[in-house]
Every structure is written in structure tokens, then in C-alpha cells.
Amino acid sequence: MPNVQRLERGPMMTGGTPLRSLDEEELLARILPVFPLGEDLVVAPGDDAAVLRTPGHVVATTDTVVLGRDWLDAWSSGADIGHKVVAQNLADVAAMGGRPTGVLVTLVADPELSLEWVLDHAHGLAEACAAAGVAVLGGDLSSAPAGVVMVSVTALGRLDGEPVLRSGARPGDVLAVRGSLGLADAGLRLLQADAVDRLPEAVEHQRRPQPPLEAGPEAAAAGATAMLDISDGLLRDGGRIARASGVVIDLDPRELAGDVDALAGAVGAEAALDCVLAGGEEHSLLATFPAGTLPGSWRRIGSVRAPAEGEAPGIVVAGRAVTHTGWDHFRTT
Amino acid sequence: MPNVQRLERGPMMTGGTPLRSLDEEELLARILPVFPLGEDLVVAPGDDAAVLRTPGHVVATTDTVVLGRDWLDAWSSGADIGHKVVAQNLADVAAMGGRPTGVLVTLVADPELSLEWVLDHAHGLAEACAAAGVAVLGGDLSSAPAGVVMVSVTALGRLDGEPVLRSGARPGDVLAVRGSLGLADAGLRLLQADAVDRLPEAVEHQRRPQPPLEAGPEAAAAGATAMLDISDGLLRDGGRIARASGVVIDLDPRELAGDVDALAGAVGAEAALDCVLAGGEEHSLLATFPAGTLPGSWRRIGSVRAPAEGEAPGIVVAGRAVTHTGWDHFRTT
User: Fold this and answer.
1) What is the pLDDT of residue A55?
2) Is A165 in the B-facing interface, judged by CB distances under 8 Å?
3) What is the pLDDT of residue B84?
4) Which of the two ends of chain A, N or C, has the fewest CB atoms closer than 10 A to its terminal CB?
5) Which reaction(s) are listed as its catalytic activity (chains A, B) (predicted)?
6) What residues does CATH 3.30.1330.10 cover in chain B?
7) A21-159 has which CATH code?
8) For residue range A248-285, what is the model confidence (pLDDT) as tens digits?
9) Chain B residue numbers touching A159 (CB-CB < 8 A)
10) B174-331 CATH, one of 3.50.70.10, 1.10.150.20, 3.10.20.340, 3.90.650.10
11) A288 labelled ligand-binding
């Protein structure tokens, strides 16, 4: 767990209506009307629990964002954080082959937090959920010590077939991606450099990632053997599939050249390569498919083979070992 | 939202192995083996999301506890907090008529928090889940500013029939309870008075409530018309059923005399009455049933009638209006 610095109070804590001036009922009366109700909802928020119609299997995941650790007030609005925390949770549902159906949202906040930030945040949550056809099932509100703002989302989904795990990749499969590579990390670097105009779409992807949610069930139906969403970088997440499956994944640098080129003008060639190979928070889907079954909307970026004699499962680039910091091997190919 | 005081660092922050000395993988390797896997689990923690087998309907609820707001280090161990946060979530599932099947757990903590506290907490979570046949489906770990420790649980359950809402009580129904009344509040008062020996079972119920989970589906099957768990007090929660259902609930003080007497020796007669009528965190189940259908394990404590001409829906005691602070009306009956 990395250390978190205590933050000075930024705009979200000042200049509006502080939460301490409302009781919980008043606050909920402002927030709840913002949220969408999905088709599968049987009992909406307000009772002891929500009830969701579902056949077969339920997919469940949770992810939390903390002010100062996962976002800065100066870089992201309340609505941005709403979009982002929903996106990263729904991407995990899609990465199992599931269709997201509902979320529960918990806000734990310093009572000095402004109501205006909370409502902006609620609208961001609602937009991201509505775009995905997902209901807000309920949540919880709690106060916290000075300077603390934390949003925790649990996402549920339905799974019509079998789940796609990380452990199913087989020698002979192709490795493919659906969505962008490196864009969110490039956006973070532009925010850090105060140069957001150089590639606004990268900054937008950092603030409001849009995972290709429909691609999850599509991949599952097409026979994907392993899948995850890229949250910690292509090398690290690809390595997870490789180790869980006991295979070697070989990335094809020719297939990544266009991704690197697209970012190089904004962040420089070396950083662009880092973004594509190691950039997190992208939330594109990475999957393996048996040869010949790749859906047309997915892009092949590598292959899967059995480990050689004495070789450990893992990820390589054009047949050569690469570590998280060992870009030299890659750059010389 | 009540204000929260910043806390001085108590024992949970000192004297052990601080979380900052472990990386997330090492911490998970210590925590995950503690947790039970339920019968309905298809994919266990470790992939993008967990997968839970379920027919029909999913019940979902979430509840969060924050150090200094919901518990004090001096009064509750890590295991106590694990028991309590699971119990209050599972009670909400049971109060819909559902059977709890799984939980997701998020810990957001100051990196100075001790590993020993976290493992003790994990054991408490695990014990409470195992006792209920509930799986730990996954969760999230995040660091937080100094002094912050927060646990957020989302509970899922299956519902074989129709959900029991708060809004279904009808004139002629009987009001009944399953479980204790006032015990958790009496325990809190004994902790505050540093007099835990006066009624240890009350302190134990405050620290580790044990909701009668099996009574939820039982009540649903028996035809309960409305149900909730008592988290904010009998009067307030009973009033919620009354208003949601558009009825008047009339508590029978003769049926509550034994509950008051059981606490009076430890906290005094006046406080005992307050505990029974207004004590929160009890997590017993409160429900209404059509006359003649009350299961033998439930205890009748009142009746349901239509509002008189010009009378608002709500809760009364022996036919007389009572407010949250208006105990006089009650005490004179």
C-alpha cells in the first residue's frame, strides 16, 4: 500500500454547500433521483436491499477510489470520478464475459465536502450507468475525518454462458485487444506536464475511460479462452494471463507500432512506448482466442505458445524477455 | 452526516507490523486463506470478478463502518468489527426474505494500521460468514490518510420467492419480532459507563450482533406482509413500515415489559425503556403477518390497523401517540 499524503482542502471542500448542512434524508433526496433504474430491477433503492432479476450466474466485483491516491481535485471533476469508478468496475464484469446490470455506490466523505461536488459526482455515475444500461441498486453514506473522500462501487452482472477466466489460454491461441492502448497513461502524463491540449482525447480517456463493455460477452460467445481488462498495463496484465495459464505470450511489436506512433507526438517516443506497454487504467479488454475464431472487431497483437524447456510462463516481446523496466530489449527489435 | 473527530492513534495503529511494510500481494496472501468459500461460488476471488450461481433473484445491499464514527478502537477488536459489519449486511438480506450467499469486502486504511489488526479483522469476517454459509467473493484494498480505517461490505443473497418489502403491512396484521430488543443499545451504554460486567451479553450483542438470518426466508415463506431489521430502533423502524404501508402500527407495551425488565438491572429502568423502544444496531427482524399465520418462533408485540379519520400513518403505543423523545406517554400507560 503506497503512502498517501494528507491533502490541503481544494475546491471540492470549499465554495459550495457543505454536506454537514444536510441530514442524510435530505442528501439522499437530492442524489437518488439522479440515478437510472435498469430493466432487471425488481426492488429499487429504499428498502433494506435491492432485488435484481437474474438467470444463472451473477458476476460481482468491487473497486474503490480515494482522493489523493486515485485522483486529484485539480485534475478531475466529481462527474469525471463518477464516470471512472463505474467504468473500472463494469470493465471487470465485462472481462469475465458478463453483462453489467447494477452497481451499489458508497460515499465516505469529510462533511465539509460540497453538495455541489456530490451532485456533479452523482450525475457522472448516472451517465456512465445509463450508457451501459446499468441500475444504481443502492449504497451507503458515511462521514469521515477531515480531508477524506472515498467512493466505493460494487458492480453486478449476469453471465449467460460460462465465465472467461485468466487461466484458459492455450498454445496456438492468438492474443488480441479490444480498445486503445496507452491512452490513459499518456493522459496522466499530459496532466502532470500541464499540457492537456497536446492530446485531449488522452486526457479524456484518463478522466473518463470508456471500456468496450459489449466486447466482453461477444468474446465469451466467440470462444475466448482467457480475458481481463488492462488496469495495470499490457505487460503486467498479459503476464497475469500467461502465468495463470502456464503459457508464454509473445507480443508482436509490429502490431503495437501504430499505438506508439499515435502517442509519440504528444508525450515523446520513449514515453509513448512506456504508455503502450505499461500504462494502467486503460480498461481495454485483452483476451486469447483459438486460432481462426477472432471476432473481426478485435485486433491481434500477439500469440500464445508453450514454454520452452526450462522456460517460465510469462510474457515476451518478439521472442525476447522483457521486464517491466527493461524496455531496451524491446526498443532494439 | 454527523461530524467525526480525528482520532489519536490507538493500539490498532501501534505495536504490530504496519501495513506499509507489505505490498498488496503479500497482504492478500495473508488475508485470502482466512475466508470461506460458499457452496454457490463458481469463480473464487482472484480473477477480475467472482461468479456466483443463482436462480431467480439476487438481493444486494451495502453498509460501511468508519473508525471513530461507528466504532472505537478501545471498545471493539478487529474481529468484533468483522463480525458486526457482516451481521448488519446479512440482516438486510434476510429482511428482504433472502438467504445471504456472498460478500465483497473493502478495506481502506492508514498504512500505519497493524497487520495484526487486519488479520484479526479477517478472522472475524470469516467466522461470521462461515456461520452463515456465506462466501467472501472478493474485495479491494486501498490506503488512506492518517487515522482513517474504513470497512465497506456488500452482501448478496438469493431469493427463492417474492421479496418482502416495507410497504406491505395491512390492517388486521399482527406485528412480530424475532430476536432481542434493546440489547445492543444497553451494551453501548455499559461500554460508555465502563461497566461491561453488569450485563456481558448486552456488550457482546453490541460488539457482535447475531441476526436471526434463517427467520427472514422463514417469514417470507409464512406470508409476512412487511419486514425489516431493527437498525435504528423499534419506534423508528416500525414507523418506517407504518408510513411505507399507509397503516398505524400499535405496539403492545405488555409484550415489551419483559424486554425492559431484562435490561433494567444493568442500565436502570428509564434507560432500559429507551433501549427497547429506540435502541439501534439490534438487527433483530421486525415483520407483519396476516392474523393466524405467525410462525411459532416469532413473538407478537403489536397490531396493525387502518389510520382513523385524519390520522397520519405511523406508530403508536397502546393507542397513544409517541415520539422518539416522548417517552412520558408510554411510561404512564
Assistant:
1) 81
2) yes
3) 98
4) C
5) thiamine phosphate + ATP = thiamine diphosphate + ADP
6) 17-159
7) 3.30.1330.10
8) 999 999 999 999 999 999 999 999 999 999 999 999 99
9) 51
10) 3.90.650.10
11) no
Q: Is B18 on the interface with A (CB under 8 A)?
A: no
| Prediction ipTM score | 0.89
CB A16 within 8 A of CB A78: no
Residue ranges, comma separated, of all CATH 3.90.650.10 domains in chain A are 174-331
Give every CB contact of residue A141 below 8 A, 6+ residues apart in sequence: A24, A27, A28, A106, A107, A108, A109, B1
Query: Which of B69, B143, B156 minimises the CB distance to A2?
Result: B143
Q: What is the average pLDDT across B275-283? A: 97
Least confident of A54-63, A86-95, A284-293, A305-314: A54-63
Q: Chain B contact for A64, CB < 8 A?
A: yes
A-B Cβ pairs (cutoff 8 Å, strict): 244
Task: Supply the pLDDT for residue B41.
Answer: 85
Instruction: Check the annotation: does A63 bind a ligand.
Output: yes
Q: Please check the confidence at residue B326 and state whether its pLDDT lies above 90.
A: no
Q: What does B24-93 look like in DSSP terms, one character per residue?
A: HHHHHHHHGGGS---TTEEE-BTBSSEEEE--SEEEEEEEEEEBTTTB-TTT--HHHHHHHHHHHHHHHH
Distance, in angstroms, between A319 CA and closest chain B CA? Answer: 27
Strand order across the A50-53 sheet: A41-43, A50-53, B57-66, B149-159, B99-109, B135-143
- Chain A nearest CA to B264, separation (Å): 31
pLDDT of A326 above 50: no
CB contact under 8 Å between A93 and B49, yes or no, is yes
Chain A touched by B214 (CB under 8 Å): no
Cell of B129: 460468514
For the ranges A254-258, B128-132, B158-162, which has the lowest average pLDDT?
A: B158-162
Pairing of strands B149-159, B57-66: antiparallel
A194 φ/ψ sector (left φ>0, alpha ψ -120 to 50, else beta): left
Considering only CB atoms, which chain B residues are within 8 Å of A24? 1
Q: B1 or B144, which is more confident?
A: B144
What pLDDT band is residue A329 in, cutting at 50, 70 and 90?
very low
